């Protein structure tokens, strides 16, 4: 099956590199503007099917499912996950309401523990080809994927076949590269070595997955078929969240996630509240109305 696969996560070492350079040496960056390329976006009710590849505990799965359910929940107090997601409505107007659909468990590692991009598309197809659907493949901590930990932590794309559908992948980096894909919940692999933040759900790998899942979901609804909103080239675009890599709160700079909230009972850091008492740390999202990376705190 032919596919169009584009990265949605900016590598951590890249933005930490700038922390080692003097301010005077930095070339003035061009304004951050995500251009709309007149393609279709995913608006309205969008079903998110989950393909769990490898072994995840029920607690780990609930962290991710609760996050997706939180995207459209009006119940949690602000700052909320839903308020963060609401920024996607400003992209060519109209809301994208994400609903958890089917879940598929592949705990037997049917394709082995070393996956290629073609394997991800094959697994994603288990979710079907229905319109306004995103099939998300989530790989366990003992599964390697081409490019994982080297150039990406998650990505998304779409098939080119007649039965076109959008899909995404995010890996659990706990065993392979938590300093790369689960920062700021782990010491960074490169750059300034600040103490890590405490993960809000007590799972460095899965809380890191939520950050990357948030990134690819926002990229999927605003640039599902590689002709939506992005800056740069279509082969390696900066999208709604990947354009704001490393920013979680006000005052962020390379190697420092910004000012976020602290749960006094657990010491965990967060900036958004979700359903079932969950707290999450979510990356900044580019706001097309202000042309700025918007944070909740």
From TrEMBL:
InterPro entries: EXORDIUM-like. Residues 1-24 form the signal peptide. Its main location: secreted. Pfam families: Phi_1. Coiled coil: none annotated. Belongs to the EXORDIUM family. This is Phosphate-induced protein 1. It comes from Salvia splendens (Scarlet sage).
